[in-house]
Design goal:
The complex is a heterodimer of chains A (about 140) and B (about 110). Chain A has helices spanning about 15-30, 35-55, 80-85, 95-100, 105-115, and strands at about 1-10, 55-65, 65-75, 115-125, 125-135. Chain A is an alpha+beta fold and about 140 residues long. Chain A has a single domain, classed as Histidine kinase-like ATPase, C-terminal domain (Heat Shock Protein 90). A 5-stranded antiparallel beta sheet of chain A has the order 1-2-3-5-4, with helices on one face. In chain A, a hairpin with a 3-residue loop joins strand 2 and strand 3. Chain A is globular, with a radius of gyration of 14 Å. Chain B has a single domain (about 5-110), classed as Udp-n-acetylmuramoylalanyl-d-glutamate--2,6- Diaminopimelate Ligase, Chain: A, domain 1, CATH 3.40.1390. In chain B, strand 3 (about 45-50), helix 3 and strand 4 (about 65-70) form a beta-alpha-beta unit. In chain B, helix 3 (about 55-60) packs parallel to helix 4 (about 80-85). Chain B has about 110 residues and is an alpha/beta fold. The chains are: A alpha+beta (about 140), B alpha/beta (about 110). At the A-B interface, helix 1, helix 2 and helix 5 of A face helix 2 and helix 3 of B.
């Protein structure tokens, strides 16, 4: 099963819709609750990052019986130093993003914590590509 | 403690009528920082927050939190209530400060997450 979603930068009203839709699908597939939570936390944090930093992005989720592979590609400023961005507390978020309850430099480390495998590529000035792969069965 | 009893203790208004008010709450977490909420593991946990926006409800949804209290009578939008309803999240609002809400629930035996 392949699911696709579009994200608009700055659209905090709809941030989380894709994560919510995928959560419902995984529930229908009887994926264990703890595994669903890991997937949707990693994806929701990614959605918020795209809304907070990029102009737009596309999410594609490929759901197989044993695993889910989520790719998120955005057009935006990119991440100039991925290693630094992975450090807890490092942030480039705006005041507006902080007022929404995010932007504390906890997003990327939390995405990593909730991913079985995380791959990030980024070209500063162009955008970021993230691939999250998680097992769906115990 | 049942969420219905918690609402009474806090003189809070239930904003999601029709949802089950007998669900048990054993723990609470107070935060306005959703990034922090998203790092925790929760079971029977109520979120106490002063952040009244859609992302507070989304964060509860993703974190498997079934009850949310908005403190200080912050304005709650229709969209927030609908989103909470769609996800079976009981949303209540109290005029008390987050400190007072936390203190009352702590005294009533609701445990901290950390």
């Amino acid at each position: 099963m392949v699911l696709q979603y579009h994200i608009d930068g700055g659209d905090f009203v709809n941030a989380g819709k894709a994560s919510s839709a995928i959560k419902r699908v995984l529930k229908q597939l009887d994926v264990p609750a703890k595994r669903i939570k890991r997937v949707v936390i990693a994806l929701y944090e990614t959605e918020v990052n795209v809304v907070a930093h990029a102009s737009q992005g596309v999410i594609e989720a490929v759901i197989e019986p044993e695993r889910i592979t989520i790719t998120v590609k955005d057009s935006g400023p990119g991440i100039s130093d991925i290693e630094k961005a992975m450090q807890e507390g490092y942030t480039t978020a705006s005041k507006e993003v902080r007022e929404m309850g995010f932007g504390a430099g906890m997003g990327l480390p939390n995405i990593k914590r909730n991913s079985d495998d995380l791959h990030i590529e980024s070209v500063p000035g162009e955008g970021t590509f993230i691939r999250i792969t998680n097992d769906l069965r115990d | 403690m049942q969420i219905g009893n918690i609402a009474e203790l806090l003189k809070a208004k239930v904003l999601t009528p029709g949802l089950d008010l007998t669900s048990e709450v054993s723990h609470a977490f107070t935060s306005d920082l959703m990034s922090d909420v998203l790092t925790g593991d929760y079971d029977k946990t109520i979120l106490i927050t002063g952040l009244s926006n859609l992302q507070a409800i989304r964060t509860a949804e993703m974190s498997d939190i079934r009850e949310v209290i908005i403190g200080r009578n912050k304005e709650v939008s229709r969209e927030m209530i609908e989103l909470a309803h769609d996800n079976d999240i009981v949303l209540i609002r109290s005029s008390y400060s987050l400190y007072r809400i936390s203190g009352i629930l702590y005294e009533a035996g609701i445990k901290p997450v950390y």
